[in-house]
Amino acid sequence: MTTPPIVMLLSRDFAEKAVQAAIAAIEIYNKPDFHFREETFSLLMTNSWELLLKAKWLSDHNEDVTSLHVYENDPTDSGKKNPRLNRCKNPITLGLTSLAQKLSEDKNSGLEKPCLDNLLALVEVRDTSAHFLNKDLYFGRRILEIGTASIQNFVGLITEWFQIDLSRYNFFLMPLSFYHGFESAVPVSVSKYPEQMQRLLAYWRHTLFVARPLWMPPSAGQITPRHPLSRSARRISERIIRGHIGSSPKI
Length: 251
Fold this sequence. Notes:
The protein is mainly α. It has helices at 10-29, 37-60, 96-105, 113-128, 137-162, 195-207, 231-239, and strands spanning 71-74, 77-83.
C-alpha cells in the first residue's frame, strides 16, 4: 500500500520561504565587508515580512489564495468585482503595508502597534534605498536599531503563528560597535544630507524615537543572540518591539 504524499499547506510554504528570506537578509548584513549592506538588508527583510504576513493571512482565511487578491469594480457590472491584474495578467495580491495594517487592526493577530511602526520604518528604508548613499556610521547605527527590532518581532510572530523552530539559525545582526565611535555617531549637520535622507530622518524622529518603551515577553519565542547588542541598538529595539511593559527581553 503506497503512502499518500504529504501536502504542505500554502501558508506553511510561505512561512518557510519567509525564514529563508530573513536568513539571506541577516547573512548579507553580517558580511564583514559589504558596501550595500543596509539597502540589501531592508529589501530582503521586507520581502521576508511580506511572505510571513501572507502566510498568516492565508492561515486565517482557510488557505484561500483568492483572499489575498486585490479587487476592483467591473466596468460593465457595477455589482461585480474582479481581481486586479498585473502586466502578465496574474492577479495582484495585497502588499506588505496593506497586510500589516489589516492584521494590526485585529486584536487577536499578535501584530501590535510597535511592530507595525517598526515595519513601516523598514519599508521607508527600502523605498528610499534607490537614493540611499549610506556613507556614515549614523545611518548604519539607526538601521541596525530598526533591523534588530524587526528580527526580534519576526522571530516572535513566526514562532507564535507557525511554531517553526528557529533555534538552529543565528538570528542576530552583528553589532557595528566594532567600529570606533559607532555608539556616539551623530550627523554633523542634517542639512548636509540630500533631501530624501532629511525626510527619512524626520520620519524616524516622529514615528520611532519618541515611542513609549514596550518589551517582548520571554514567552514570545524570542531567540537569544550569541552576541550582545550595542547599547543604542538595545535602546531603540526596546521601543519598537511587540509585547508588554515590565518584562525585559533576553538580549
